[in-house]
Amino acid sequence: MTTAEVYVEFATREAHGVSPAYERLSLAVARDEELLALLGTLPPAKRQPNLLFGVVRWLGGPVDDPAAFRDYTVTRWPAIEAQLRTRATQTNEAGRCAVLLPVLAALPQPLALLEVGASAGLCLYPDRYAYRYGEHRVGSGEPVLECAADGLVPPARVPRVVWRAGLDLNPLDVTDPADVAWLDALIWPEHAHRRARLRAAAAIAAADPPLLVRGDLVDDLPALAARAPADATLVVFHTSVLYQVPAPRRDAFVRLVRELPGHWIANEAPTVLRHDALPDPPDEALHNVLALDGTPLAWARGHGQAMTWFA
Questions:
Q1: Is the pLDDT confidence value at 37 over 80?
Q2: CA angle at residue 266 from 263 to 271, to 5 degrees?
Q3: Mean predicted lDDT score pLDDT of the chain
Q4: What is the b/e burial string over 95-128, where b = at least 16 CB atoms within 10 angstroms of the residue's CB?
Q5: Which residues neighbour 236 within 8 Å (Cβ) at sequence distance 6 or greater?
Q6: Residue of 204, 195, 197, 142 lying closest to 175 (CA atoms)
Q7: Which one, 10, 24, 109, 161, has the greatest CB density within 10 A?
Q8: Dihedral of alpha carbons 30, 34, 38, 41, sign
Q9: Which SS3 state, helix, strand or coil, does residue 68 take?
């Protein structure tokens, strides 16, 4: 897929109906030969829309007007390029816990959670958040994670978590204002509710920080998994992470995680982690496939805002 096609797909399948500003920007970039040429000097993984737009926002640039965005990006390209080469999209969307919760609550309790690609670890606290599936509410406190769920009998309670750990090449610290500012920059411009959710989730994590280990998802996963308490169910999980991992390394990870004790929850795009005989997705928007131990269970939107259960 060309860079222009990547931006068109992002506009039509991810941003459409969710972020008008990013939909406009993505389509404008896809038609701009100069911007495409600049992006073409980067490795493919560094050309993605979320990363470019997040870096520009983090640097204080405009993302609400394509012309102003273009002028800013072209004029300040050396500074933008430097950040693109060193940073990664580490969207730490606590809302994703809403699509993980039905699986987590159904596993033998208590749980030892290990998130691959944990960023700042905000998805390691599914037991501390509250949830609303239509009229059905689960848990108490803030933030309340809302999810439009179709075909799902919502769980009656949150899981019991006795150990939580994360693995990331560049773990972020929720007690560091600079790291939180980067997470904020990755939230799409119109999503004030996600900013409020980030602050609430970050406060929970900062009050009881998880074990976050800097490491590789293949080389360092077994040692971290071995630290989980033996009397808890180990659950290795990840959401929208494997697209950043080269295919051979991704395959090695899948082989490894299948051999670990406990369970494996994946929430990835079907082009990234393939499954046989999937039903048609609910609509043309980009959906992840929620899977347990390699068995697909549901379609899920990227920020946890909706899911369609088909298992």
A1: yes
A2: 145
A3: 95
A4: bbbbbbbbbbbebeeebbbbbbbbbbbbbbbbbb
A5: 114, 115, 116, 221, 225, 257, 260, 262, 263, 264, 265
A6: 204
A7: 10
A8: positive
A9: helix
**pLDDT at 285 (0 to 100):** 84
HEC letters along 143-165: CEEECEEECCCCCCCCCCEEEEE
pLDDT tens-digit map of 150-172: 999 999 999 999 999 999 999 99
Distance of CA 34 to the CA centre of its chain: 30
Spell out the domain ranges in the chain: 3-86, 94-309
**CA atoms of 57 and 67, how far apart (whole Å):** 15
* CA 196 to each of CA 116, 184, 247: distance values in angstroms, whole numbers, following the listed order: 24, 10, 35
**pLDDT tens track for 2-31:** 999 999 999 998 899 989 999 999 999 999
For domain 94-309, say whether CATH 1.10.443 is its number. no
Q: How far apart are CA 165 and CA 225, in angstroms?
A: 9
For residue 211, the cross-strand partners are: 165
Are the C-beta atoms of residues 27 and 8 closer than 8 Å to each other?
Answer: yes
Distance of CA 253 to the CA centre of its chain: 18
228, two tokens: 């989980």
pTM of the entire predicted model: 0.86
DSSP class per residue in 251-262? HHHHHHHHHSSS
